[in-house]
Amino acid sequence: MKSKDKTKSATTQVNRQSEIERLEKDVEELRQLAGDEEADAELERIRQQVAELRKEFYSHLGPWQRAQIARHQQRPYPLDYIAMLFTDFTELHGDRGYGDDKALITGLAKFHGRPIAIIGHQKGRDTKQRLLRNFGQPKPEGYRKALRIMLLAAKFGRPVFTFIDTPGAYPGIDAEERGQAEAIARNLREMARLPVPIIVTVTGEGGSGGALAIAVGDRVNILENSFYSVISPEGCAAIMWRDATKAETAAAALKITAKDLKELGIVDEIVPEPEGGAHVDPEGAGQLLGEVLDRQLVALSQQATKDLLETRYEKFRKMGQFFDFGG
Whole-prediction pTM value? Predict the structure, then answer.
């Protein structure tokens, strides 16, 4: 019975989205007739109808629907946010040991005039870009490059901003041979004791250790339609039920949405998105995020380094539930 209800719910979501797309097409056609009084009146009526439907649709999205929005190929990526929010950006390449991983963007910039460091996953939008960026899945040299920039930031007292949007660390044999697990583990340790403010933002999908390797921060934000999880819904469904088509069920069970994560204490703040998602209005999404980052950086900059590190340590130690059954 529950399975039928979920299928019905998913079908309703699809139907509503199709209706919105149909009405948007009508708006575009009527816009071509602008100047005609009757057409203008009809255009305004349909615009209002589209706005109401969009608002209703996006206020009732389930975990799986939000996961699809988080993966939308027109959603802003770190390079987009860098262009919108930061100045004087200089990209830094290479881990000084093996090579340069283009799945991770790293560099130095200024935020409201203050020198900072930036690290973020970059997926790419078309096939050529995605192959170049390895679909946003870093290899060990990517994490070592990120660590190099973090240590550089610590040396010169620059706060660190990280932007997360990855399905996970690259699982290929070449990455394992070069120490994928060790690179991630080292980042976790070093970020826990980095003596500068670290502000983390999940802008799309945050997948497993691939995300966590640059996500140990004093503030962890998540955009309204993003998700953060130990495994993708498809991967969870394949393991638990040996059926990837049960991804929607897995998404609900994993508690991956921004609201769930805030209630569980995994993230500190949910950053609102423009109606329809960040991909509909990237500039608006950038403005909303910029306001949050500015406020948090001001607050963190007022803390003594010792207090900053102690608070960061306690923050991550409190995550999860632990049971001592004795022995």
Answer: 0.83
